[in-house]
């Protein structure tokens, strides 16, 4: 029998199946989807069995060394999904499979040589290697005996040496000791005066079930020696049992029943629930304003899925959403829920994955990679905040979670729900075309009003002589909240701060005359550059719009805001939430809890407080620089700005008291900011779509991004030019190839970066051409350090 295998060497020449002989004693065991250890050149590596077949065309096959899994870690569905993923995202199949599995399953295999006989009997070549040691690493032997490895082989043949393989797993399984009373325990064996032993026995008798040894010892205040005595007398049996590390250990959740749905919720719930009951692979776009009760609909749909005996995946964008969301799911579904996000340790992730793999849970709540949860009876996938960037994976495989979700739902014949208050333009456009089924919730639950939103023109503040980062109206609003003992959220958008130049008098931001994209400031030669087409111009000393002299690039951090805040409002208690204050595990949750318990008046933070917060006492949201993100050199910057502002606004007035939002801005007339005041998503969609059509951006065109990097700048320039030329030659006339130009981040870790971009519509050759590029450059060893990264439908520029 032959195992056709994908090996763990991400390179073009290995992105095919390698055949290995299955030794007789493994024939019953090896199945597709299992991890195995195989020899590859001089090394041993991990591989995934894709197929088991009878014959191979290849002569002189090597054998499998070891099987790592008792059951397949990849189901047939996931094996096929990986193949599709590799093709769609132009990556290696091994990268696709590894992305589906927890890091703990990526093992390191080392080969060791073990001495069986005494040194003096050995060949003199080997003697110096072993000295006093009995075991050495195989690679040390290869290094030391380069060219004379036949001596090792001889020694192996003669039984002087043996080979060992050591498989190192990250986040290994954890075991615990358990005890119970022996079946026929003869108590007379315990002496009258052995009180502690008697106490232990009595306790076990009363509990009458298996218990953790440690728990029993502390409950009875006895020692390990007492227990040992009982075990030795065969009164108690002890064994080791594998346990799961529970990321939510010690957190109590109160069971909450389903809420009676409002009429509007019911109208949305009915079609989804029909789709669940009829096993339809339909994609719904649930467009519901913030606080409209989307989550309650998710919960009730999942309940239906569970009643059918099926499983559900609930995706949330990132860790910031997890604590509050997880609490709501645990409260409804208790132990049926596993969680998966980047905040878990390797071991915790591994354990949660195993609980899913063994069908011990029915619901997973998790971030991006949870879309690969190895359920076999999948009945529903939900993607909350579907517009979020974090659903796009930045490294290989550069997949979009939505596409994977839809693909899996197709396989399982089940629905997908994409939910958002501000859907991505791509999704909304598809829903309008009828590709997805559009469902809307236009009102907050029980008709609570949407918050009132006001724009504060920061140029006027400057004119009035206020140079502080807080406008007069924001200061007053904050003071009122302090008096009324209500809470406020202050949001500082850090992203995009460092790159753009703006006139503080009139709000003018220099843009590329060819691409409609903000120019990026380059400190090195004090110039402005376009990262789409390469256009470059000098940094102006006065504003070309208003001739003011306050044109410069600016930025500020949360820490600076906090200092300023304590200076102007010393009586306010502030909680700051950013990367620095949430570094430690659980810090995030602690800060939110403290705020929830009213231990602070103001929550000051970055992106991580924009979403998911549901606190009744927040009546004011202040956004310090509403336009910060508007000027990132990315054609989606307007969309992101609208989405973010709408999200942040949604934190205010979610319960009884109405909410107020203040947006400070230097460009108050921009449509992305203006339309937030009306909570007008439709208006925004129409306006932005028109822009995209003119500039030929998605969703009217597809895009692909090719980034070339190398420590050697001339090589990067030459190769990226070659790639651009090749693309221009092969693509049809309607397809636009832009570049090569310097990447937005021109150098990372001493590697210079250049990029090309393709904008295309009906161009079947794109995937093929990019695959060619990848294969060509990675096969050609003379390319040295050159790296090529390909991104279909890029989100990060
Ligand atoms: P969204 O996910 O759309 O932001 P949520 O599901 O968080 O909205 O709902 C907002 C608030 O309304 C929450 O506090 C939630 O408990 C409450 N809620 C949702 N549905 C109902 C309902 N049918 N009856 C009463 N309260 C509800
Ligand atoms: Zn340009």
From TrEMBL:
Necessary cofactors: Zn(2+)
Domain Helicase C-terminal per the UniProt entry, residue ranges: 538-692
GO biological process: DNA recombination; DNA replication initiation; DNA replication, synthesis of primer; double-strand break repair
A molecular function GO annotation: DNA binding
Binding of Zn(2+) 2, residues: 512, 515, 530, 533
Keyword Metal-binding: yes
Helicase ATP-binding domain location: 275-441
Protein name, as recorded: Replication restart protein PriA
